[in-house]
Design goal:
By secondary structure, the protein is mostly helical. Helices cover 74% and strands 0% of the residues.
Length: 144
């Protein structure tokens, strides 16, 4: 991510932090489950609690965007937990779509193409790190 993209994501996140995390999560999960009902069975936690977890992890990532390497172990551990929940690599794209849609709705007139690209890059880094950690470790070890 460029420094400018980091700044865009952080500034937009400040606006979203003023909104109840349960509301943001409810919008996100509603969109995810409407568009991709096949993933709904993966979520066993009550939606309110799941919403709070989603916003908490996003807050950690956004706050450390300029130092993401400090979060690598935490992100890898999160990825491993997601495998145990039944998450597959293709699910990350569904989540990304729902997240960008939710951000667009939440930010309203502050949302634009540049901000969309910044958030897409942010999510791309997060999801690719998780996918690599969860699904490619064994391959890398066997090659080494």
């Amino acid at each position: 991510m460029t420094e400018h993209q980091v700044e865009l994501v952080k500034n937009s996140w400040k606006l979203l932090r003023k909104v109840d995390p349960v509301l943001i999560g409810d919008v996100f999960y509603s969109k995810l489950f409407i568009d991709f009902p096949q993933v709904q069975h993966l979520f066993k936690t009550p939606r309110e609690e799941q919403s709070k977890k989603l916003i908490a992890i996003l807050a950690v990532v956004v706050n450390k965007l300029d130092q993401l390497e400090e979060l690598t172990t935490d992100i890898e551990n999160l990825a491993t937990r997601h495998v145990h929940y039944g998450v597959k690599p293709e699910h990350y794209g569904h989540v990304g779509s729902a997240l960008l849609w939710t951000l667009e709705r939440g930010l309203g007139s502050d949302w634009n193409e540049e901000l969309k690209q910044a958030w897409a890059t942010c999510y791309g880094i997060l999801s690719s790190t998780m996918i690599k950690a969860a699904y490619h470790k064994d391959t890398e070890r066997s090659v080494a």
